[in-house]
Amino acid sequence: MKNLKKKIPKFKNESEEIKFWSEHDSTEYIDYNKGKKKILSNLKPTSHLISIRIPDYMLNRLKMLAHKKDVPYQSLLKVYLSEKIEEEVYK
Asked: Where do the H-state alpha helices sit in 1-91?
């Protein structure tokens, strides 16, 4: 026997849709067993602006290395942080 689902209503705006889904169970409207995997390759991870204090000599060395590699120093710093974090996590 078919698994009959309720029809999703048309919404006038996003606020109406948000209100609807906050009051209704989506499993009554969507058959999640029929879902397909999708890779969203163009998504950028959420980032946060932070402030850190590092010694002048360290920043100068980082900028020098970045200049040699022809990349922005902030990008190089993120690469170095990422590498060290992965190294520590998978120790």
From this structure: 14-23, 56-69, 73-89
